[in-house]
Amino acid sequence: MSRRTALFLTAFGVWSWIIWITFAKNLWDSDRAWTPTGAPTGYFIVHAILTVVSFVLGTIIGVIGWRALRTKQSTNS
After folding, report:
1. What does pTM read for this prediction?
2. Domain coordinates in residue numbering, the chain
């Protein structure tokens, strides 16, 4: 994997966490997320699942990029 690709994947992983943390906070505070009795709505459940999947995929992609960067650095030393 090229250094450029490894940097892109690492940056994507970091970006994914920044974006989805913000989304999760906004989701939690959303009026559409909770019923008047305080139970989660379908809107909340679907978007919470989307958020968790995105965290997992962003983490996996970021780790792949980070490991590739570390491998490139150790082979260049």
Report:
1. 0.81
2. 3-76
